[in-house]
Amino acid sequence: MGPVERHDAHAILVTTDDVHRLCEFLYRRTGMLFDDSKRYYIDRRLRERMVATRSTSFQEYFAHLRADAEHEIEHFINAFTVNETYFYREDHQLRCLTSALLDQAVRNKTPEDSIRIWSIPCSTGEEPYSIAIWLMENWSAVDSYNIEIIGSDIDTRALKAATEGIYGDRALMRLAEPIKGRYFNRLPDGLFQIDPGLRDSIHFTKVNLIDKAAMANYRDIDVVFCRNVLIYFDDASRRMAAENIYDCLRPGGYICLGHSETMSRISSLYRVRRFPDAVVYQKPGADDDAN
Amino acid sequence: MMPTEQSGTAAKARVLVVDDSSLVRLYYLNALKNAGFEAEQAINGIEAIEKVLAGTYDLVIVDVNMPGMDGLSFIRDIRRRSESVATIPTLIITTEAGEQDVADARSAGANYYLVKPVSERDLIRHVAALAGAPP
Lengths: 291, 135
Fold this sequence. Notes:
The complex is a heterodimer. By secondary structure, chain A is an alpha/beta fold. Chain A has helices spanning 16-30, 39-52, 58-66, 72-80, 91-105, 126-138, 156-164, 177-183, 196-200, 212-215, 235-248; strands spanning 114-119, 146-153, 166-167, 184-186, 192-194, 202-206, 221-226, 249-257, 271-274, 279-282. In chain A, strand 9 (271-274) and strand 10 form a beta hairpin. In chain A, helix 2 (39-52) packs antiparallel against helix 4. Chain A is globular and about 60 Å long. Chain B has one domain (5-131): Rossmann fold (3-Layer(aba) Sandwich), CATH 3.40.50.2300. Chain B has helices at 22-34, 45-54, 71-79, 83-86, 99-108, 120-131; strands at residues 14-18, 38-42, 59-62, 90-94, 112-115. Chain B starts with 13 loop residues before the first strand and ends with a helix. The interface between A and B is medium-sized, with 20 and 19 residues.
């Protein structure tokens, strides 16, 4: 360890006003809302970034951030996102995908047509890879359609990890051994790397849910998995994200939220659909069956 | 690599899977490997030609609609080449189920024709019949 440097973050005074300014900046950029109850979480990440940028005061760091010097906005957002997940998380929704959602989605399609499934945020890739594995293991029509799976996140560090596709035991804890054997290569250090063919079947992109212009690049999506992110947003950002996703969906398309989230409090655009395996939300379509 | 086959067992039949979807290729590859076949892949007819010219295959499974070179063009192409390549059995797997589609596949030189979706069981049954049962 080297000597304590002059810009040791613990020595820097950060006031409540500073934190508010920072949270306001983060909110405007991402829709993520952090209040004083998350002060410890905020302080830790702020100090991390101040050390990394060798800032000697909050003012210096904030100027650096606002100028986006050395892509600081990206680093800053990356520091605030949460990327802890695992394969086959909330697999009842994956069951719902193959027991109900896709069968409905293909009613208006012919073989070779595209089925577009979007995992946003995809974090470090566990969710989009899980969707692909689940389809190959459980959906008999998997070879009949052009299945496009997109994984998007605002966090470029997470996207890089997703593309590398290297995971430890914890991420794979819900997968049976034969599935690990089929879709992962065991690395010498005990980690597992996703099969290159599987990796190539997922298209990873950087997208911000509340950026309407960026979201407009995504259209005709059949199913969106948007789990456990809206809980970090305030009401206005939640509604904005829900409306942006609505525009991305095909009429009759579905959105799956996290288990603690419900669309009815966010937006009235969607219709709730209760399937045996999961409750999901549907964009109304001209020829969908309301029941 | 051992230069000789393992004693007591035949060499695994070697199958080339040609499809432009990486998900579909992986699905077929896993089914084939589970059943004991050796399986490789190509993303279209052009890459498949390179592979059959460079290696030895007991069967090529090929999709019809692919960018670059489609499945029927691939079969027509290899049927005109030297005997060892021209005689490789080919299995078309496609979503095109019309009479004309089947007739076109036959005239191109395909040995068998399956319509998607193809279950793992059906795939293995037909591959075993065309390429020889796996060890």
